[in-house]
Amino acid sequence: MDNNENKLLLRKIEREKAARKQAEKILEDKAAELYERTQELHAANEKLEFLLGEKSSELQGIFENIVDAYVVMDLQGNILRMNEAANQLFGINLEKEQVNVSSLIYPEDEVYAMESFNSLREKGYFTNYQARVLTRELGVRWVQINASVVLDNHKNPIAAQGIVRDITEQLNKSTTLSFISEVSQEILGKTSFREIGAILAEKVSTFLKTDDCVVYLKMPEQKYLQQISAVGAKLDEKGAIINPLIIPVGTGIVGTVAQTGKSELIDNTQEDSRYITDDAKRLSELTVPIAVDDQVLGVIDAEHRQASYFSKNQLKSVRAVSNLVALQLRSAMDENARRESEARNTKLLEQLELSNRELSEYAHMVSHDLKSPLRSISALAEWIKEDNFEQLPHESKEHFVLLEATITKMEELISNVLEYASVDRVAEEFTPVDTHELLQEILDLIFVPDHIEMQISSKLPTVSGNRVMLQQLFQNLVVNAVKYNDKPLGFVNVSCQDKDTFFEFKVSDNGMGILPEYHEKIFKIFQSLNPDGESSGLGLALAKKVVEVHHGEIWLESTADEGTSFYFTLSKKK
Fold first, then answer.
1. C-alpha atoms less than 13 angstroms from C-alpha of 229 in its C-beta half-sphere
2. Do 113 and 179 fall into the same domain?
């Protein structure tokens, strides 16, 4: 090695020694600085303890008298002191452990908490800070914090203090009231039970913070429950339920609740053999009946993947909502049933109207077809009689008399059938009809024997109706009363009473009377109590139909051998 190489090596060694000395100097300076900072921090802590000692009497009074939790911490967030209320809330023993407030913050609220803590250091205080905290025994709790910075004699911040109030129950009540209010407003006036179910499923799932909630419906005549609304995975892109379950009453947790009418809270469905897996298996289930007067109309069923997720307070809240919804749901179901009934009635009325129209047309056709050959028979009989009457034996002449009477009776019967079938055709041709005047006209048309006294009330009213039909009604009743009066001194009385919304007429006599077993029979078509065959059996049937067309009723009271009273009503509606 030559001198040049030796010189270079020595220079390199000298530079390394110088660099090492420089590094050692830096380490010594940093160590000294760290020691000084440690001493300063120790001094600050001693000063804080000294100040806290000076304030001990004041703080002790606060600690003993304040109801809310009281916490003191350093500026790094280390908790220095707590009162008894804080110990009970957080479940912390500072004598056994050192705790930083960051460990008490609910994970989802960490960013918000740090922003608030930085604000405290900058502004010196904050008020009404709300967030969730983690406690050892009470779980997650909502708290409201009012905090301020503690200053030394030189106005320098050395610590922070805060009053912590547990507002979990208050928020729960507020949330529940809001939940109930929202559901009440949303379902108000709704008449579709599917729409009510959709609102209920959405609101309950939001309140319980679960993505699975289904509403089942049980119609009164059904023995099973059907899913009518849901949220989450149960719905397709159009909002319809995918493969809706039908659960028999008494089957599964939902079916059991529908059967018993009692709510159930299941913490672990794996331990309950009644659990029915729908779209996915979940561990927690909350099931509440929707019932009115012990009648279960449906069931609210919510599930969550986490075990022991739902609380008893949540169960109470959902139960309160179910009671509210039950009334509206029953109203909707009643309205739905009413609409279905009205639709059926409308269809029946249309069918009845068509049948009546066809019957009327058929009656006119039949009456025409029957009267034509009947007139031919009558004419032929008359011709035979005129040509051969004198040559006929006495017995044959009597047969001709019977034949003429039968033809007349047949023609009268055909006319009565036509009148009966024609009643509905003039049902709406109503005009004011003076019934007293109408009765006088009828008396001028019919024959009343001298031994029968007619008693017509002078207070008979003017009614709204079809004059021709009302004439048939009164005439049939009066003629029957006269015709079947077997007393030497008989009477027929026609009167009326005003019954506010209708008139009640009465046609009574002291004739032979009618036995009770025939009171309904005589109003049926072609039914007659007269054995001689003079009656067609259509008179009272026609009277009944006329009364019904006028929105009234007809009935009778009678005692055999003493007389009969026919009653009928006519509505005052025009």
1. 19
2. no
CA distances from 327 to 196, 243, 293, 306, 331 (A): 11, 28, 10, 33, 6
State how many domains the chain has.
4
Do 567 and 449 fall within a single domain? yes
70 backbone dihedrals φ, ψ, rounded to 5°: -125, 125
Phi, psi (deg, nearest 5) at residue 290: -105, 105
Above 70 in pLDDT, residue 411?
no
Q: 91 and 135 in contact (C-beta within 8 Å)?
A: yes
216, 290 Cβ separation under 8 angstroms: no
Residue 264: CB atoms within 10 Å: 18
Is 399 inside a domain boundary? no
- Residue 289's DSSP bridge partners are 299
Query: Is the pLDDT confidence value at 184 over 80?
Result: no
pLDDT tens column, 97-134: 888 888 888 887 788 778 877 878 788 888 888 888 88
Q: Indicate the residue among 299, 314, 331 that finishes a domain.
A: 331
Residue predicted with more confidence, 557 or 116: 557
CATH number of the domain encompassing residue 117: 3.30.450.20
Domain extent, residue 525, equals 427-571
